[in-house]
Amino acid sequence: MSQRESHEAVVHFYATGVYPCSYLEGRDARSQVAIPVELIDAAVYSRLVRLGFRRSGHYTYRPACDACHACIPVRLRVADFAPNRTQRRTLRQHAGLDIRILPLAFRDEHFHLYRRYQASRHAGGGMSDDGSQQYTEFILKSRVDSVLVEFSEKGVLKMVSLVDKLDDGLSAAYTFFEPDDVGCSYGSYSILWQREWALSLGLPYLYLGYWIADCRKMEYKSRYQPLERLFDGVWRDF
């Protein structure tokens, strides 16, 4: 399968082998991967995201499992979003955070926060033992228009979000935050802030990756409405 771009370059797709699903226990997974990575720039990636792809570092993929369709691409229509009471409380709670938009670069403080977050929230998972090289490959390697959004309080780093800029929106690629601050809602605040940023840029969508009905880690995405899902190649109300 291939897709011809205006500059006559061709992006190809291949299916990976089967591997254990990281979201649903006991399931096998398979991905469709776009190659070569050198051709996937910001414009091409924007088109791929609209087709349900995501990226991890230079690796651009979408689920292509043989007998499972649980991973549903979702996006928020930012102009129509109205925060509920809990989300308004989150906005007030974290309104004092200082925010910086930074280029992709290794920073010790970010890496140590990432390590604490993985050890606390994803202990035993595939990334809980990531070293600096794995962190760099996952967070800092990008051929698209990506930035790090840094959230701090009184000079203390609290959260970092990796965000991709697309033709028609922002893509919330990954967020990690201080795991020991009990009662905080950093992850929710990151989505709410990215929604406001997309709105200020005149972009219609915030892409939130995949929603999976039977995965508790993904259920939070359905709290942001109006949400659209990609079904049979068409974005529909969800």
The total number of structural domains is 2
CATH architecture of the largest domain: 3-Layer(aba) Sandwich
Q: Determine the N-to-C terminus distance.
A: 29 Å
What strand line-up does the widest sheet have?
Answer: 9-10-11-12-13-8-14-15
CATH class of the largest domain: Alpha Beta
Describe this structure in words.
- This protein has helices spanning 42-50, 85-93, 108-121, 132-140, 186-200, and strands at residues 2-4, 10-15, 19-20, 28-29, 31-35, 54-56, 59-63, 72-77, 98-102, 146-153, 156-165, 169-177, 205-211, 227-231, 234-237.
- By secondary structure, it is an alpha+beta fold.
- The protein has two domains: 2-73, no CATH class; 74-237, Aminopeptidase, CATH 3.40.630.
- The strands form three sheets. It has an eight-stranded mixed sheet with strand order 9-10-11-12-13-8-14-15, with helices on both faces. A five-stranded antiparallel sheet has the order 1-2-5-7-6. Strands 3-4 form a two-stranded antiparallel sheet.
- Residues 1-8 have low confidence and may be disordered.
